[in-house]
Amino acid sequence: MTKIDSLQIIIDSLENVIKTTTLENHSDNTNRVNVWRTVLSSGIIILLFIVERIITYWASKKSRKREFIHNVILKTCIHDVRDFFKEFYGGLKSSIDYIKQYSGTVDQIQLEKNFKLNELKELKVQFDHEFISLIRSVNKSQAIKLTDVLNRIEDKATISLTDDNLLSIDMNKLENEINELKAEFFLEIYKI
Amino acid sequence: MKIDMIKYRGNSSPSYTGRSEGLSARKDANLDIFDKDNKRYIFLIPEGTTAFNPSFFLGFFFNSIKAMGVDKFRRKYIIKIMEEDEELKRHLKIDISEGIRHSVNQINSKTTGGGLLSFLNFTHR
Protein backbone atom coordinates (compact mmCIF):
# COMPACT_ATOMS: atom_id res chain seq x y z
CA MET A 1 0.00 0.00 0.00
CA THR A 2 2.76 2.36 0.99
CA LYS A 3 4.46 1.71 -2.34
CA ILE A 4 1.32 2.37 -4.34
CA ASP A 5 0.69 5.61 -2.39
CA SER A 6 4.16 6.89 -3.11
CA LEU A 7 3.73 6.16 -6.77
CA GLN A 8 0.42 7.94 -6.76
CA ILE A 9 2.03 10.99 -5.11
CA ILE A 10 4.67 11.09 -7.82
CA ILE A 11 2.08 10.75 -10.55
CA ASP A 12 -0.02 13.46 -8.93
CA SER A 13 2.88 15.83 -8.60
CA LEU A 14 3.89 15.25 -12.25
CA GLU A 15 0.34 15.90 -13.34
CA ASN A 16 0.38 19.05 -11.28
CA VAL A 17 3.64 20.22 -12.94
CA ILE A 18 2.22 19.52 -16.40
CA LYS A 19 -0.93 21.35 -15.52
CA THR A 20 0.96 24.36 -14.21
CA THR A 21 3.25 24.46 -17.22
CA THR A 22 0.34 24.21 -19.62
CA LEU A 23 -1.43 26.93 -17.75
CA GLU A 24 1.73 29.13 -17.90
CA ASN A 25 1.99 28.59 -21.65
CA HIS A 26 -1.50 29.76 -22.10
CA SER A 27 -1.08 32.78 -19.92
CA ASP A 28 -0.59 36.02 -21.95
CA ASN A 29 1.67 37.63 -19.39
CA THR A 30 3.96 34.66 -19.18
CA ASN A 31 4.04 34.45 -22.95
CA ARG A 32 5.15 38.07 -23.25
CA VAL A 33 7.85 37.54 -20.67
CA ASN A 34 9.06 34.48 -22.53
CA VAL A 35 9.18 36.37 -25.84
CA TRP A 36 11.18 39.16 -24.25
CA ARG A 37 13.51 36.65 -22.66
CA THR A 38 14.11 35.01 -26.03
CA VAL A 39 14.61 38.33 -27.82
CA LEU A 40 16.94 39.59 -25.09
CA SER A 41 19.04 36.45 -24.99
CA SER A 42 19.27 36.36 -28.81
CA GLY A 43 20.22 40.06 -28.81
CA ILE A 44 22.93 39.47 -26.22
CA ILE A 45 24.29 36.56 -28.26
CA ILE A 46 24.34 38.67 -31.47
CA LEU A 47 25.94 41.59 -29.59
CA LEU A 48 28.61 39.33 -28.12
CA PHE A 49 29.27 37.94 -31.61
CA ILE A 50 29.70 41.45 -33.05
CA VAL A 51 31.98 42.49 -30.16
CA GLU A 52 34.05 39.33 -30.62
CA ARG A 53 34.36 40.04 -34.38
CA ILE A 54 35.51 43.61 -33.73
CA ILE A 55 38.07 42.52 -31.13
CA THR A 56 39.37 39.77 -33.46
CA TYR A 57 39.60 42.25 -36.36
CA TRP A 58 41.70 44.75 -34.41
CA ALA A 59 43.80 42.04 -32.79
CA SER A 60 44.58 40.39 -36.11
CA LYS A 61 45.15 43.64 -38.02
CA LYS A 62 48.86 43.78 -37.15
CA SER A 63 49.40 40.06 -37.73
CA ARG A 64 47.62 40.21 -41.10
CA LYS A 65 49.84 43.12 -42.15
CA ARG A 66 52.93 41.23 -40.96
CA GLU A 67 51.73 38.11 -42.79
CA PHE A 68 51.25 40.11 -45.98
CA ILE A 69 54.76 41.60 -45.77
CA HIS A 70 56.24 38.17 -45.06
CA ASN A 71 54.36 36.38 -47.83
CA VAL A 72 54.51 39.00 -50.55
CA ILE A 73 57.88 40.62 -49.92
CA LEU A 74 60.15 38.58 -47.69
CA LYS A 75 59.32 35.06 -48.85
CA THR A 76 60.09 35.99 -52.44
CA CYS A 77 63.32 37.82 -51.56
CA ILE A 78 64.83 35.54 -48.93
CA HIS A 79 66.83 33.62 -51.56
CA ASP A 80 68.26 36.92 -52.83
CA VAL A 81 69.39 37.74 -49.28
CA ARG A 82 71.11 34.36 -48.90
CA ASP A 83 72.67 34.72 -52.35
CA PHE A 84 73.96 38.18 -51.52
CA PHE A 85 75.78 36.99 -48.39
CA LYS A 86 77.14 33.96 -50.21
CA GLU A 87 78.31 36.07 -53.15
CA PHE A 88 79.73 38.82 -50.93
CA TYR A 89 81.78 36.54 -48.71
CA GLY A 90 82.78 34.39 -51.70
CA GLY A 91 83.88 37.53 -53.56
CA LEU A 92 85.80 38.84 -50.56
CA LYS A 93 87.56 35.51 -50.00
CA SER A 94 88.51 35.05 -53.65
CA SER A 95 89.70 38.69 -53.85
CA ILE A 96 91.95 38.22 -50.81
CA ASP A 97 93.29 34.93 -52.21
CA TYR A 98 93.88 36.54 -55.60
CA ILE A 99 95.75 39.53 -54.17
CA LYS A 100 97.80 37.28 -51.87
CA GLN A 101 99.10 35.45 -54.93
CA TYR A 102 99.34 38.49 -57.18
CA SER A 103 102.86 39.44 -58.12
CA GLY A 104 103.28 43.05 -59.12
CA THR A 105 104.54 46.41 -57.97
CA VAL A 106 103.05 48.12 -54.91
CA ASP A 107 101.00 50.40 -57.18
CA GLN A 108 99.73 47.47 -59.25
CA ILE A 109 98.70 45.60 -56.10
CA GLN A 110 96.94 48.73 -54.85
CA LEU A 111 95.07 49.03 -58.15
CA GLU A 112 93.97 45.40 -57.91
CA LYS A 113 92.83 45.92 -54.34
CA ASN A 114 90.81 48.98 -55.34
CA PHE A 115 89.27 47.13 -58.27
CA LYS A 116 88.24 44.16 -56.12
CA LEU A 117 86.93 46.39 -53.32
CA ASN A 118 84.85 48.43 -55.72
CA GLU A 119 83.33 45.24 -57.17
CA LEU A 120 82.18 44.29 -53.66
CA LYS A 121 80.93 47.81 -52.95
CA GLU A 122 78.88 47.73 -56.16
CA LEU A 123 77.39 44.40 -55.10
CA LYS A 124 76.41 45.91 -51.75
CA VAL A 125 74.90 49.05 -53.31
CA GLN A 126 72.91 46.95 -55.80
CA PHE A 127 71.56 44.76 -52.98
CA ASP A 128 70.74 47.86 -50.96
CA HIS A 129 68.78 49.33 -53.88
CA GLU A 130 66.95 46.10 -54.69
CA PHE A 131 66.15 44.75 -51.23
CA ILE A 132 66.45 47.48 -48.60
CA SER A 133 64.46 49.94 -50.75
CA LEU A 134 61.61 47.45 -50.75
CA ILE A 135 61.81 47.04 -46.98
CA ARG A 136 61.94 50.82 -46.60
CA SER A 137 58.53 51.08 -48.22
CA VAL A 138 56.98 48.95 -45.48
CA ASN A 139 59.14 49.59 -42.43
CA LYS A 140 61.51 52.55 -42.49
CA SER A 141 63.09 52.06 -39.08
CA GLN A 142 63.91 48.39 -39.77
CA ALA A 143 65.35 49.40 -43.16
CA ILE A 144 67.75 51.73 -41.31
CA LYS A 145 68.86 48.86 -39.06
CA LEU A 146 69.39 46.60 -42.07
CA THR A 147 71.38 49.34 -43.83
CA ASP A 148 73.54 49.69 -40.72
CA VAL A 149 74.37 45.97 -40.81
CA LEU A 150 75.17 46.21 -44.54
CA ASN A 151 77.45 49.20 -43.89
CA ARG A 152 79.33 47.19 -41.28
CA ILE A 153 79.78 44.35 -43.77
CA GLU A 154 81.13 46.88 -46.27
CA ASP A 155 83.52 48.16 -43.58
CA LYS A 156 84.75 44.61 -42.91
CA ALA A 157 85.51 44.14 -46.61
CA THR A 158 87.17 47.57 -46.88
CA ILE A 159 89.38 47.04 -43.84
CA SER A 160 90.34 43.50 -44.95
CA LEU A 161 91.13 44.43 -48.52
CA THR A 162 92.99 47.64 -47.75
CA ASP A 163 95.07 45.93 -45.07
CA ASP A 164 98.75 46.33 -45.87
CA ASN A 165 99.49 42.79 -44.82
CA LEU A 166 96.87 40.58 -46.44
CA LEU A 167 98.86 37.46 -45.59
CA SER A 168 98.17 37.97 -41.89
CA ILE A 169 94.39 38.00 -42.32
CA ASP A 170 92.71 35.23 -40.34
CA MET A 171 90.13 33.97 -42.85
CA ASN A 172 88.27 31.87 -40.26
CA LYS A 173 87.85 34.91 -38.04
CA LEU A 174 86.70 37.00 -41.00
CA GLU A 175 84.18 34.33 -42.03
CA ASN A 176 82.83 34.18 -38.47
CA GLU A 177 82.47 37.96 -38.36
CA ILE A 178 80.58 38.01 -41.67
CA ASN A 179 78.37 35.14 -40.45
CA GLU A 180 77.59 37.04 -37.25
CA LEU A 181 76.56 40.06 -39.30
CA LYS A 182 74.46 37.77 -41.53
CA ALA A 183 72.70 36.40 -38.42
CA GLU A 184 72.12 39.95 -37.21
CA PHE A 185 70.70 40.86 -40.63
CA PHE A 186 68.24 37.93 -40.55
CA LEU A 187 67.25 38.84 -36.98
CA GLU A 188 66.39 42.36 -38.13
CA ILE A 189 64.36 40.91 -41.02
CA TYR A 190 62.47 38.74 -38.56
CA LYS A 191 61.52 41.84 -36.55
CA ILE A 192 59.79 43.45 -39.56
CA MET B 1 87.90 77.48 -44.76
CA LYS B 2 89.59 74.23 -45.77
CA ILE B 3 89.64 71.13 -43.60
CA ASP B 4 92.13 68.44 -44.50
CA MET B 5 90.58 65.08 -43.76
CA ILE B 6 93.88 63.17 -43.82
CA LYS B 7 94.18 63.17 -40.03
CA TYR B 8 90.88 61.32 -39.74
CA ARG B 9 91.98 58.41 -41.86
CA GLY B 10 92.92 55.31 -39.85
CA ASN B 11 96.53 54.44 -39.05
CA SER B 12 98.27 53.96 -42.39
CA SER B 13 94.86 53.13 -43.85
CA PRO B 14 93.76 54.48 -47.23
CA SER B 15 90.08 54.31 -46.27
CA TYR B 16 87.51 55.93 -44.01
CA THR B 17 85.35 53.38 -42.20
CA GLY B 18 83.12 53.09 -39.14
CA ARG B 19 80.34 55.25 -37.79
CA SER B 20 81.97 55.66 -34.38
CA GLU B 21 85.22 56.73 -36.09
CA GLY B 22 83.20 59.28 -38.07
CA LEU B 23 81.61 60.58 -34.89
CA SER B 24 84.95 61.02 -33.12
CA ALA B 25 86.31 62.79 -36.19
CA ARG B 26 83.24 65.06 -36.17
CA LYS B 27 83.88 66.00 -32.54
CA ASP B 28 87.53 66.66 -33.27
CA ALA B 29 86.66 68.83 -36.28
CA ASN B 30 84.11 70.83 -34.22
CA LEU B 31 81.42 70.37 -36.84
CA ASP B 32 78.67 71.15 -34.33
CA ILE B 33 80.07 74.68 -34.11
CA PHE B 34 80.55 74.99 -37.90
CA ASP B 35 76.93 73.97 -38.45
CA LYS B 36 75.75 77.12 -36.71
CA ASP B 37 77.76 79.76 -38.57
CA ASN B 38 77.22 81.14 -42.06
CA LYS B 39 80.62 80.26 -43.52
CA ARG B 40 81.37 77.71 -46.21
CA TYR B 41 83.78 74.86 -45.58
CA ILE B 42 85.75 72.68 -47.95
CA PHE B 43 86.59 69.18 -46.81
CA LEU B 44 89.59 67.78 -48.62
CA ILE B 45 89.61 64.04 -49.08
CA PRO B 46 93.31 63.31 -49.64
CA GLU B 47 94.89 61.63 -52.59
CA GLY B 48 95.39 57.89 -52.15
CA THR B 49 92.02 57.45 -50.47
CA THR B 50 90.39 54.25 -51.68
CA ALA B 51 87.09 54.42 -49.80
CA PHE B 52 84.95 56.93 -47.93
CA ASN B 53 82.39 54.49 -46.62
CA PRO B 54 78.79 55.54 -45.86
CA SER B 55 79.29 54.39 -42.24
CA PHE B 56 82.02 57.01 -41.71
CA PHE B 57 80.05 59.60 -43.67
CA LEU B 58 77.02 59.08 -41.40
CA GLY B 59 79.11 59.46 -38.26
CA PHE B 60 80.82 62.59 -39.61
CA PHE B 61 78.05 64.43 -41.47
CA PHE B 62 74.68 62.99 -40.39
CA ASN B 63 74.03 65.49 -37.58
CA SER B 64 74.82 68.39 -39.94
CA ILE B 65 72.41 67.12 -42.62
CA LYS B 66 69.78 66.54 -39.93
CA ALA B 67 70.27 70.05 -38.57
CA MET B 68 70.32 72.02 -41.83
CA GLY B 69 68.80 69.78 -44.52
CA VAL B 70 70.50 68.39 -47.62
CA ASP B 71 70.31 71.52 -49.79
CA LYS B 72 71.93 73.81 -47.24
CA PHE B 73 74.44 71.07 -46.41
CA ARG B 74 75.49 70.86 -50.06
CA ARG B 75 75.90 74.64 -50.25
CA LYS B 76 77.76 74.99 -46.95
CA TYR B 77 80.00 71.93 -46.99
CA ILE B 78 81.94 71.19 -50.15
CA ILE B 79 83.55 67.77 -50.24
CA LYS B 80 86.52 67.87 -52.56
CA ILE B 81 88.15 64.65 -53.72
CA MET B 82 91.86 65.19 -54.30
CA GLU B 83 92.39 61.82 -55.99
CA GLU B 84 93.26 62.12 -59.65
CA ASP B 85 92.53 58.58 -60.77
CA GLU B 86 89.15 58.89 -62.48
CA GLU B 87 87.92 55.41 -61.60
CA LEU B 88 88.79 55.84 -57.93
CA LYS B 89 87.27 59.32 -57.95
CA ARG B 90 84.05 57.90 -59.40
CA HIS B 91 83.83 55.34 -56.61
CA LEU B 92 84.54 57.95 -53.93
CA LYS B 93 81.72 60.05 -55.39
CA ILE B 94 79.42 57.01 -55.17
CA ASP B 95 80.46 56.57 -51.51
CA ILE B 96 79.57 60.20 -50.77
CA SER B 97 76.24 60.08 -52.62
CA GLU B 98 75.40 56.84 -50.77
CA GLY B 99 76.27 58.56 -47.49
CA ILE B 100 73.90 61.44 -48.33
CA ARG B 101 71.19 58.98 -49.41
CA HIS B 102 71.52 57.00 -46.17
CA SER B 103 71.36 60.24 -44.15
CA VAL B 104 68.17 61.33 -45.91
CA ASN B 105 66.61 57.89 -45.42
CA GLN B 106 67.50 57.97 -41.76
CA ILE B 107 65.92 61.39 -41.32
CA ASN B 108 62.81 60.27 -43.21
CA SER B 109 62.52 57.10 -41.13
CA LYS B 110 61.56 59.27 -38.17
CA THR B 111 58.57 60.64 -40.04
CA THR B 112 55.54 58.47 -40.64
CA GLY B 113 53.44 58.04 -43.74
CA GLY B 114 54.09 57.13 -47.34
CA GLY B 115 55.04 53.83 -48.88
CA LEU B 116 53.31 50.50 -48.79
CA LEU B 117 52.74 50.70 -45.04
CA SER B 118 50.57 53.75 -45.54
CA PHE B 119 48.66 51.90 -48.26
CA LEU B 120 48.11 48.95 -45.90
CA ASN B 121 46.95 51.27 -43.12
CA PHE B 122 44.54 52.87 -45.56
CA THR B 123 43.03 49.55 -46.59
CA HIS B 124 42.50 48.64 -42.95
CA ARG B 125 40.70 51.85 -42.08
Compact description:
Chain A has 192 residues and is an all-alpha fold. Chain A is built from five helices and no strands. Chain B starts with a strand and ends with a helix.
Describe the structure.
The complex is a heterodimer of chains A (192) and B (125). Chain A is mostly helical and 192 residues long. In chain A, 90% of the residues lie in helices and 0% in strands. The N and C termini of chain A lie far apart (84 Å). The C terminus of chain B is likely disordered. Chain B is 58% helix and 14% strand. Chain B is of the alpha/beta class and 125 residues long. In chain B, the strands form two sheets. Chain B has a three-stranded parallel sheet with strand order 1-3-5. Chain B has a two-stranded parallel sheet with strand order 2-4. The chains are: A mainly alpha (192), B alpha/beta (125).
The total count of helices of chain B amounts to 6
Main sheet characteristics of chain A:
none
- The helix content of chain B, as a percent range, equals 55-70%
What's the end-to-end separation of chain B, in Å?
Answer: 54 Å
| Count, helices of chain A | 5
Distance between the termini of chain A: 84 Å
Give the overall form of chain A.
rod-shaped
The percentage of residues in β strands of chain A lies in: under 5%
The most extensive contact between chains is: A-B, 29 and 29 residues
> What is the structural class of chain B?
alpha/beta
Provide the descriptors you would attach to this structure in a database record.
heterodimer; A: 192 residues; mainly alpha; 90% helix; B: 125 residues; alpha/beta; 3-stranded parallel β-sheet; 6 helices; 14% strand
